[in-house]
Design a protein that fits this description.
Blueprint (H helix, E strand, L loop, with lengths): L4 H7 L63 E5 L3 E5 L7 E5 L4 E6 L7 E5 L7 E6 L8 E16 L5 E8 L7 E7 L6 E6 L1 E4 L5 E8 L4 E8 L7 E2 L7 E8 L5 E8 L6 E6 L6 E2 L6 E8 L5 E8 L6 E6 L8 E5 L3 E7 L21
Antiparallel strand pairs: 1-2, 1-23, 2-3, 4-5, 5-6, 6-7, 7-8, 8-9, 9-10, 11-12, 12-13, 13-14, 15-16, 16-17, 17-18, 19-20, 20-21, 21-22
Length: 367
Amino acid sequence: MKFSMQQTVALAALTTLAALVALGGAACGGGGTSGSASASASASASASASASASATTATGVTDGGIGGVLASNKIYYWDSNTAIRSVNPDGTSDTLIASVPSTVISATINPVVANQYIFAYQPDLVSNVGIYSNTTLSITGAKSIVNPLYADVVSLQVSPDGKTLYYVARPSGSTEVDGNLYTVPMSGGAATVLDKAESAQLNAKGDILVYSQFVAGIGRAQIFKRSTASGSTAVQVPAATIGYDTFVPQWNKNGDKIVFTGLPTGTSQHDVLTMKADGSSILRLTNTPTIDEDAASFGPDGSKVAYTAIDTDSSKSGIYTASATVASTGKSQVLLLTSIADRIYWTGSNGRALGGAFGMPRSLKRL
């Protein structure tokens, strides 16, 4: 469920409009396997399951008005790998927010500076990827933050004070399964490696990162968290290995729960799971052998999650919401999408995206 950089080129960008306040796989949240439940290579998104309003083109980064603040209680998603859109949880007002150039492979916005994009740019499929900032998703006039050093960049997100950038990237020429989790000042400078990771998300306070990391000894990824403070160490959550390959973990708005994509051992379909921040009380929300579910995000009060689904019956594919507290309950199709990228984020009541990329992280493709 992770795309290669080439595959995600079209998938591009706001994989982390993360900066929103606290403000980026395998195609789908699913770690490093190849066909993603939520990522598809071509595609045209179809109409909304419950009536979408006419789309309007946005010229700015946000539709909320200030800095990286978005409209409250909206589900933001990648449509056909070339656009960022938002929709109400009931499926109405499906709106174009920004078109994404094929040369932009991931992006976010600054939660403090209005109309400032931070994006990973790859001029062609064989060149290295660099990280830049600009008022638009364009390399013209952009400021370099990190030189083109990488084969892929995901999970871009800016700290709540707008001063620090976090991201996951694979160095050019690396043959390791994971990439690295980095931090760098928004003003530029040398990037610091914090750990190995496939995807990551910053919590609303900007002080704890949650991320997936491939564990060679068991052959699958597990979830870790660590403080952003210098010298801190990573903690696996839960401490004991769980029977899932795990991908794209995301915080809830309060920072006390985590939702993630899990691939049960011995199966090929991804499901959505939640757990407390300490790794306890793991709950498998979906258990559907014929449906690949991925890229989940908590709603404003944490009682529901939104996620992408690819069904063998294409009329049932798209974006869904469901209960975040009771398994297999309250499932409702928000949008019918025959092709959808594996990135969505459900904004909170204050309209801010908490964590990586619109809250929309994706994972690196495993090598």
